[in-house]
Amino acid sequence: VIAIIAILAAMLLPALKNAKDKAQEALCSSNLKQITLSTFSYAFDYNEHLPPPATHWSKPWSKTIYDYVQNYGVYKCPTDNSERNLGTTSHVRSYGCNSSNSLGSYGAFAPFGLMNDTAQKPDIWPYRLSEIGKGSTKKNNQSMICLFGEKPSDSYDGMQYTGATNTTVENWSFSTLNCSNNSMLMHKRRGNFSFADGHLGMISRSNFLSASVDGNCWVWK
Predict the structure, then answer these.
(1) Which of 29, 131, 200, 208 could form a disulfide with 181 if both were Cys (CB 3.0 to 4.6 A apart)?
(2) Could you read off the pLDDT of 75-107 as tens digits, one per residue?
(3) Phi, psi angle pair for 122, to nearest 5°
(4) 34 sits in which H/E element
(5) What is the rounded CA–CA span in Å between residue 19 and residue 150?
(6) Dihedrals phi, psi of 87, to nearest 5 degrees
(7) Which among 80, 69, 65, 64 has a CA at the least distance from the CA of 24?
């Protein structure tokens, strides 16, 4: 009898693991949907402008839109188990916004503008929602440009997501995506992303395209 139970358990465990993975993917997608809809609500209140990546070192986009989200738990992917040393007012965040660390040939056309300009002006950065994809030279439109995605740590190619000690919602320097294939690892080498037209989708690491390639998810010019 014990042997039969062991055989049945061995048969069922992979299916249970797969079901758990699917449930976590779905919850992660739901988190991103809520973040994206909250961002749209913010934009509707601010003449279509997206929130800046950061307005101060202690105030990234996630705090700017918090009044619309109203739940810090939404900022955490269920598969993000990285250890952190958190203070009593700190909160985990597994997602980043699509901004750039440079206003070079590509960075000027990331939806959230420049990631480390803490003095951004709303009439300059970021773009309005309706401007994303306009005049594209890469054949990229709103349905192809990501707004938010899963944010890995900045360490190495591994399963470390927002894994640096003291990485928190309050820390702007970890608030943005890095336009690399490390953003596509969380769910079996795939990542959840939301796009400028409001839809959500997963991108696999094997389908990664850099910002210089037509059809990429980062920039439109």
Answers:
(1) 208
(2) 888 888 766 555 545 667 888 888 876 656 676
(3) -60, -25
(4) helix 2-45
(5) 21
(6) -80, 180
(7) 80
Structure token pair of residue 160: 């470390």
Output the pTM of the full model: 0.82
User: Scanning the structure block, which residue is given the tokens 């894994």?
Assistant: 163
- DSSP-derived secondary structure letter, 104: S
Token pair for 164: 């640096």
Tens digit of each residue's pLDDT (9 = 90 or more) over 109-139: 888 877 655 555 544 455 788 889 988 988 8
Give the integer Cα–Cα distance in Å for 221 and 202. 23
- Evaluated on CA atoms 143, 149, 154, 156, the torsion sign reads negative
d(CA 141, CA 85): 40
Distance between CA atoms of residues 111 and 166, nearest Å: 27
Tell me how crowded residue 5 is: count the other CB atoms within 10 A of its CB.
9
Block residue for tokens 């210089």: 212
State the first-to-last Cα distance of the chain, in angstroms, to the nearest integer.
65
Q: How many residues does the chain have?
A: 221
Residue type, 59: K
| Single-letter code of the amino acid located at 180 | S
